[in-house]
């Protein structure tokens, strides 16, 4: 039974537990469904401890919330079930161990402190100062922007904001330099030690491996461009150095022409300097001490070179159809041969692939490639024919009959033919028109060649003279006595011309002043001669071929190479961009290796030995667009850029005659018509009408002549705009 005191104590504990429960639920936002009595509260009534049990289901999980000592200000939340309680209502030992609860229900966990981040006040609220020199270093002109120079306030504000952004960007760039972690190196010496006594090996031993392996680059003693050889500049100069801007009237066009001339000269220098980068070198022949180079045979050369070069020497045994005339294409890739008895063949001599082979069943006197390797001309006994690379006849040129020699001018598309009747003919193969044909009156033209630099034709004659021809003049431009006997061979390369004659002389000439430079005496039977791209000269002496180097310099004392053929040599041609000499003779054709005779580097834009079919088509179109007219063929190539004063004077005289010649009377007799249309009035009207038309044509021609001679006349007009009321003004006002 409970007494009054027990009841009071019970009531006090119950109220205390209830208030504590509501307080904890308020703090933890917990909804209370049932608040039963806490059995632990009866266990020890003197401990300031309150427990809340929330029975979610009968005998199920119970949440126990205990309030610790009020002096410590702790709160604990535990989960437990009915199995964790003892029969007396207390906590089991297992639960106490799991939750680290002592006998007085005080949980041992560390004190939770509210960690607040203390933000200290910045002692330097502004940005770090930037070095003024660094700002000036990165300033690209933003500080000089003045917004007041703009008229409107809107654009002033806009420009002010833009200037501010530019200045901020400059400051950020200058401030970012502080983050550069790399410092300059320094040298620390001991007390009393002089820094200049320290050697490089001591420094390398004291620094890291990467710094020790760095290469010291000395200051360039030649900071400018390397000088260019003057001859190389003249080689690539196409006339830019002769441009004179002072010949132009206005200052504007003078400055414009000066800039254009400067660009041309820079382009020429760059092209000449780029030749240093050419990795290909010319071949050469090295002999042992006391050994003569002309004793070396072709089999010895083939045994000493690589396999690809050794295959360039071959021999075609064609005794039944010889002697042979030969010709190489401009890029040196294709070969054309023609035998005297009608055999004609075209093939790629590098890969030995045959394009076509035919017998024209008529005597062949000469063969010549045209602008592409798909067409070639054959001078047969009667007429001249053009075939394609499959051997199909394209044209029969009956205007070129009884032809002995042919040459093709690739920049002018002209096929030049010398006949047995001393006629020299020029045929334009692009339009099929005969440009010029005239008689030289020097007998059969069986010795002929061209000068590649100016397209002038050189012919040799039986009286020992050499004549130079152009399609614009029927008389020879130059006529010089080269030999005392008949001329048998002519070859031209650059500024040098080589001639051979029956007097056993090989003469070297300068075509700029037509003077003899050197003369060499060779064995009897001297006939054909050929010039290579590197001024190597090959001469045909009977059935042998003798090759000379530096003959144009006068230093040749003996042959460079000698080769004997199986028959009389009939033609000699050096292959472009190859150390190969083609020999046509009585027994067929022979390809000889001559080290150092060919140009090692080629310009693929003009002559590409490895061009494809599409590149060949494109090159043909470019050649047709860049075609030079026959009227521009002259001895001096610089005359193209000059004014033809004589022709201009003739034209001026013609215009003056048109102005001052009285127009002739028009005589016209009207035709008789029927049905009353032939009366006197009708006839006179028709007569006056025809006369008026002819006078109008004469007057128009006179006006045109006046405008060309004196310039067009334009009356002066006022700058004021016209008005509708101008019609009422006086005419004399």
TrEMBL record:
Its main location: nucleus. Keywords: Nucleus, Repeat, rRNA processing, WD repeat. WD repeats lie at residues 480-519. Residues 669-733 are annotated as: Disordered. InterPro entries: BING4_C_dom (IPR012952), WD40/YVTN_repeat-like_dom_sf (IPR015943), WD40_repeat_CS (IPR019775), WD40_repeat_dom_sf (IPR036322), WD40_rpt (IPR001680), WDR46/Utp7 (IPR040315). GO terms for cellular component: 90S preribosome; small-subunit processome. Residues 559-637 form the BING4 C-terminal domain. The keyword Lipid biosynthesis does not apply. It comes from the Eukaryota. SMART domains: BING4CT (SM01033), WD40 (SM00320). Pfam families: BING4CT, WD40. The keyword Repeat applies. It is found in: Nucleus, Nucleolus. GO terms for biological process: maturation of SSU-rRNA from tricistronic rRNA transcript (SSU-rRNA, 5.8S rRNA, LSU-rRNA). Residues 698-707, 715-733 have a biased composition (Basic and acidic residues). This is BING4CT domain-containing protein. It comes from Ascaris lumbricoides (Giant roundworm).
């Amino acid at each position: 039974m409970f007494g009054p005191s027990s009841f009071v104590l019970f009531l006090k504990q119950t109220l205390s537990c209830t208030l504590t429960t509501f307080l904890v639920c308020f703090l933890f936002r917990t909804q209370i469904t049932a608040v039963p009595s806490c059995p632990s509260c009866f266990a020890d009534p003197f401990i300031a401890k309150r427990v809340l049990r929330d029975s979610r289901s009968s005998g199920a999980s119970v949440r126990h919330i205990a309030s610790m000592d009020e002096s410590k200000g702790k709160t604990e939340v535990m989960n437990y079930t009915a199995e964790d309680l003892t029969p007396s209502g207390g906590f089991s030992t297992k639960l106490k161990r799991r939750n680290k609860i002592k006998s007085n229900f005080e949980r041992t966990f560390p004190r939770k402190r509210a960690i607040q981040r203390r933000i200290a006040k910045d002692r330097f609220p502004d940005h770090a100062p930037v070095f003024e020199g660094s700002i000036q270093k990165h300033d690209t002109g933003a500080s000089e922007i003045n917004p007041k120079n703009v008229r409107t306030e809107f654009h002033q504000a806009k420009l002010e904001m833009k200037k501010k952004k530019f200045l901020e960007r400059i400051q950020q760039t200058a401030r970012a330099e502080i983050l550069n972690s790399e410092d300059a190196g320094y040298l620390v010496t001991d007390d009393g030690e002089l820094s200049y006594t320290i050697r490089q090996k001591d420094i390398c031993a004291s620094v890291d491996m990467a710094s020790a392996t760095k290469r010291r680059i000395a200051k360039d003693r030649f900071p400018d461009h390397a000088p260019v050889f003057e001859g190389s500049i003249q080689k690539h100069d196409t006339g830019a150095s002769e441009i004179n801007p002072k010949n132009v009237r206005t200052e504007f066009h003078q400055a414009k022409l000066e800039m254009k001339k400067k660009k041309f000269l820079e382009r020429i220098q760059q092209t000449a300097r780029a030749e240093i980068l050419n990795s290909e070198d010319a071949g050469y022949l090295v002999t042992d001490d006391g050994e003569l180079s002309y004793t070396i045979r072709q089999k010895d050369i083939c045994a000493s070179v690589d396999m690809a070069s050794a295959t360039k020497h071959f021999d075609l045994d064609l005794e039944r159809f010889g002697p042979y005339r030969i010709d190489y294409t401009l890029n040196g890739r294709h070969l054309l041969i023609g035998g005297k008895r009608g055999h004609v063949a075209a093939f790629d001599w590098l890969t030995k692939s045959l394009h076509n082979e035919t017998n024209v069943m008529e005597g062949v006197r000469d063969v010549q490639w045209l602008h592409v390797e798909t067409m070639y001309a054959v001078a047969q006994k009667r007429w001249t024919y053009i075939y394609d690379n499959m051997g199909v006849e394209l044209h029969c040129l009956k205007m070129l009959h009884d032809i002995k020699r042919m040459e093709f001018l690739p920049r002018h598309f002209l096929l030049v033919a010398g006949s047995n009747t001393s006629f020299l003919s020029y045929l334009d193969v692009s339009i099929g028109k005969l440009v010029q044909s005239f008689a030289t009156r020097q007998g059969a033209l069986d010795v002929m060649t061209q000068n590649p630099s100016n397209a002038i034709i050189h012919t040799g004659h039986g009286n020992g003279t050499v004549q130079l021809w152009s399609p614009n003049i029927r008389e020879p431009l130059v006529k010089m006595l080269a030999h005392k006997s008949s001329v048998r061979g002519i070859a031209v390369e650059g500024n040098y011309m080589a001639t051979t004659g029956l007097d056993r002389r090989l003469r070297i000439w300068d075509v700029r002043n037509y003077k003899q430079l050197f003369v060499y005496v060779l064995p009897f039977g001297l006939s054909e001669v050929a010039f290579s791209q590197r001024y190597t000269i090959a001469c045909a002496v009977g059935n042998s071929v003798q090759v000379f180097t530096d003959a144009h310099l006068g230093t040749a004392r003996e042959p460079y190479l000698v080769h004997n053929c199986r028959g009389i040599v009939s033609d000699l041609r050096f292959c472009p961009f190859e150390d190969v000499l083609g020999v046509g003779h009585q027994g067929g054709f022979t390809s000889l290796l001559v080290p150092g005779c060919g140009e090692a580097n080629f310009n693929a834009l003009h002559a590409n030995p490895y061009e494809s079919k599409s590149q060949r088509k494109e090159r043909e179109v470019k050649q047709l667009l860049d075609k030079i007219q026959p009227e521009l063929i002259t001895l001096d190539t610089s005359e193209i850029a000059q004014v033809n004063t004589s022709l201009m004077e003739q034209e001026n005289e013609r215009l003056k005659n048109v102005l001052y010649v009285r127009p002739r009377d028009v005589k016209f007799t009207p035709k008789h018509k029927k049905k009353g249309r032939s009366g006197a009035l009708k006839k006179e009207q028709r007569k006056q009408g025809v006369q008026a038309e002819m006078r109008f044509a004469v007057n128009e021609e006179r006006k045109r002549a006046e405008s060309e001679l004196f310039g067009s006349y334009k009356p002066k007009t006022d700058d004021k705009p016209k008005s509708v009321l101008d019609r009422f003004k006086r005419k004399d006002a």
